[in-house]
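hi! just following up on the protien thing from before. the input was this:
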Amino acid sequence: GSASPRHSSADMRVLIVADRFPWPITGGGFMRLARTIEALSELGDVELFHLAEQGRRDHVVPPDVPISRVGSTPYPQASSPWRWRPSWMAHGGMPLEIASRCADTTPRRAFTSWAKDSYDLVWFLPLAPFVWLGRPSLGPTVIDLDNLESEKERQRARLMGAVHPGSGRLDRLRRSVATAQARLNARDWDALQRSAAGQVDAVVLCSAVDVRRSGLTDVSVIPNAYERPARHLGRAEVAVPPVVLFQGSLEYGPNADAATWLAKEIAARIISRVPGAVIRLVGTCPPALAEQLHSPPSVTVVGRVPDMDPELAKADLAVVPLRSGSGTRLKILESFAHRIPVVSTALGAEGLDIEAGTHYLRADDPDSFADACQQLLTDTDLRRRLVDAAEQRYLQRYEWELVKEKIKDIARAVATPDSSA
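and the predicted 3d structure came back as:
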């Protein structure tokens, strides 16, 4: 698709290259990309090139977004595992998610023919398109890693390596092989992150925690941010029945694990403590997983919704039972902005400058998670104290207008000095 030309008074020519089309905004990654486009468009003329699902042609740029040109190409096709997996297992090198698609050079050729010869700033989000499109050198370049894939793989290895009661020999063998593969993949993501960082002018991550873990130098932090709502959707009094919300795409592994843990291990404990409570899982969900988790009225798999506001307005409590992942959770910032109290694991809240007991309640096992949910569904004073503090922390650190200026500052610093606005 393409956008009609719009003009800016600034002089900077910016190319944004992404692994998705951001609209409609249906998750944290989509929001981060859309907000980055918005910030950079204030510095000059922006072009967007993105990877797309095969056959999808319904990409529409919102009329208020000043993009002068949009190009797209389908994701590189994955090769047969028999072609690349033996070499990957033996020698490593590229992460398997990257290696499996490197043989398809069609996207690289499409991008090369579409892009202009040079730009004042090229901004990749995240790392994968930088590799698949041939590590382009079209001008001063930033890679927004968003989060650390290497850390997600290490956490996945820890989860899979945990001993499960009643596991048979074959199951233990499968888990052992999968754990070893995740550890190898973490190593390869580390190597790729270092290699790419050495070829560009700046690297961005979304938290200081991930910067420390990355081992990379000269990395900037652009926190995830949420636009201040015109009105908050939370409420002081708990509804009957109380509604517990978990949101996020269940096509994403860490979210799928969190939703499964919530539905299978935590939900019954919440309902035993707060009879009648209902849990709503909101976000794209593969049919097979939906069949496993959907158990109304206690657990409802809502699926993808066109607008989160009605779900937020129903929610008495937002939960983030994540046990793996990297980056920071926009779903927490959204709840803070709307004055909806939050229960999260330590990992779910990781990377955000927030304190357990002050801004949210922390719980890392099923019983303590259910206890925390009970507290926030029955103690009005505690609810008020947490949402007051959480809203203030959001406004001080994570409100979009503050973060937008950080993106623009990095862009100006990286772009050629005589072209920056």
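The two ends are 29 Å apart (CA to CA).
The longest helix spans residues 169-197.
cheers
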